[in-house]
Amino acid sequence: MSRLSWLRDQVVQRQLAAVERVVARAAYRGSRCPPFHRQLFSPQSKRLRPALLLLCARLGQQAPAADVVATAAGVELLHEATLHHDDIVDEADLRRGEPTAQRVCGPMVAAFAGSELLYATVELFAHLPTALRRCIGRTGHALCRGQLRELETSGNPDVSLCERVRIMRDKTARLFALAAHLGAELGGADRELVRAADQFGLHFGLCFQLADDIRDIIEEPAALGRHPGSDLSDGIYTIPILLALQDDTATGNALREVLIAHYAAPDPGLLKEGFALLRSTRAIERSQGIFASWMELTRRDLELVARRCGPGAADSLADLVQYLGKESGVVGSREDRLNTDWCRLNV
After folding, report:
1. Does a structural domain hold residue 233?
2. pLDDT tens-digit map of 121-172
3. Which residues contact 6 (CB under 8 A, 6 or more apart)?
4. Structural domain boundaries enclosing 203
């Protein structure tokens, strides 16, 4: 798989090929993939969550359980189900550079396609101990809570940075933490190592979301795989946008007025003006600095994990962190990094 060219661990590569077969069984109708599930197999689908689970399954002192592949496939289907529902909420036309299911088949079909993938996870998780199934249930609850909170706060320019980080944690990072936690448990890691893997996954997920939020502003459509500025257009005010709005200058105040007016009555002209104002501030640069700081903390998490496991598993997880940094295209200089309480990861 070219999308996993960063992955040197051949055992995990073979397991991911098996994950792909399980995902296909859940989506295909005989030998045919229906149009509402085609985005599931996009070459731009990175399979980061099952990769993280399988890598963390190698942290323990025993061979991973035979059902680790089913669990990894279940985590990927859970993720893909949320994407169907997100696209309906956002009325998104593109994902990963291809038309979304809700664009091709309509929101009703896309809703049931997402629900089908969600219910398919029940069988894939059925073998797990009760404690792990409860962990999955809590994560599913958090995913919905984060999405609902994002909708509740849409169009509000006064959302706090702390609140935005909490939304990022619940909507995105919790699923990465779940993948790491399940993998470590299935690999027979002890309780302390499971907690360390969980923390690593959570922080990695926050970095992943922040990188995506920055790229939504700075990337071109071809590289992004969707129309840029979708957050700004939908009234979803991410960290870069909030930093610009909280800038008590003429530019920050003008941006606030433009976004309030656009949210009340969507206007492409206002959106273009808002984009220009946002890019003229230091908000992107400051956000890149926060990303760099968070990546440093994530690497420290990895150092704690590495002390407790063999070098092979730690090296592969380090490859994953390096891959995120490279693919995000986000850079930040030390002097631009913030040290305020809200941007620390203890949320």
Report:
1. yes
2. 999 999 999 999 999 999 999 999 999 999 999 999 999 999 999 999 999 9
3. 319, 320, 322, 323
4. 9-247+282-343
